[in-house]
Design goal:
Elements lengths: L7 E7 L2 H17 L6 H18 L5 E9 L2 E8 L19 H8 L2 E6 L5 E8 L28 H4 L15
Antiparallel strand pairs: 1-2, 2-3, 3-5, 4-5
């Protein structure tokens, strides 16, 4: 189900592997429609990681809602599920085959966070800037969302961050 295709898209689903692929395709098509093609890879990676967490951890069910919202110069992708337990970023062994999803979301996004959603559930979200940081004026400070990210992995020097391209490769803690 989609609503307000010009600036807002909502998809309700059961977070099963086959459905996660469908949501990636919906998100990609929506971003193309909004002429936000440079954001597709990072947004698809982020939503895949969040939906995989719902698939692996959410209880009592795997039902969730993905919201994609484009406001001014920021794309926000959020996943609402019915499990009130908040995710935790943990240190993982180099040889571990899972456990890096939220770190990957943090690496590819401008900001991210989690908040309780009523009595039973939570929302995990991330934002991407719609304009290239390299195109922004160096004197203009980077904008942040009103909510602070739940976790900060690295304090970036804003001057150095301004030179990072919008197509920076995703970083992973996986060896090799």
């Amino acid at each position: 189900m989609t609503s307000h295709p010009s600036r807002h898209c909502t998809v309700e689903l059961q977070a099963l592997p086959s459905r996660i692929g469908q949501v990636r395709r919906i998100l990609s098509a929506q971003l193309r429609y909004w002429h936000m093609d440079p954001l597709i890879d990072r947004a698809a990676l982020g939503v895949t990681e969040l939906l995989t967490n719902v698939h692996r951890h959410a209880q009592p069910d795997k039902m969730c809602t993905v919201e994609i919202e484009l406001l001014l110069d920021r794309l926000t992708v959020s996943v609402h599920d019915h499990d009130p337990r908040l995710p935790e970023v943990r240190d993982v062994e180099t040889s571990a085959t899972s456990g890096r999803g939220l770190a990957m979301v943090a690496a590819v996004s401008e900001s991210w966070g989690v908040r309780p959603d009523g009595e039973s559930g939570k929302v995990v979200w991330f934002t991407l800037p719609t304009t290239s940081p390299a195109a922004a004026s160096p004197a203009r400070p980077l904008r942040r969302t009103a909510e602070k990210p739940a976790h900060r992995f690295v304090d970036l020097d804003h001057g150095a961050d301004a030179h990072r391209t919008a197509h920076a490769p995703a970083r992973s803690a996986v060896a090799g």
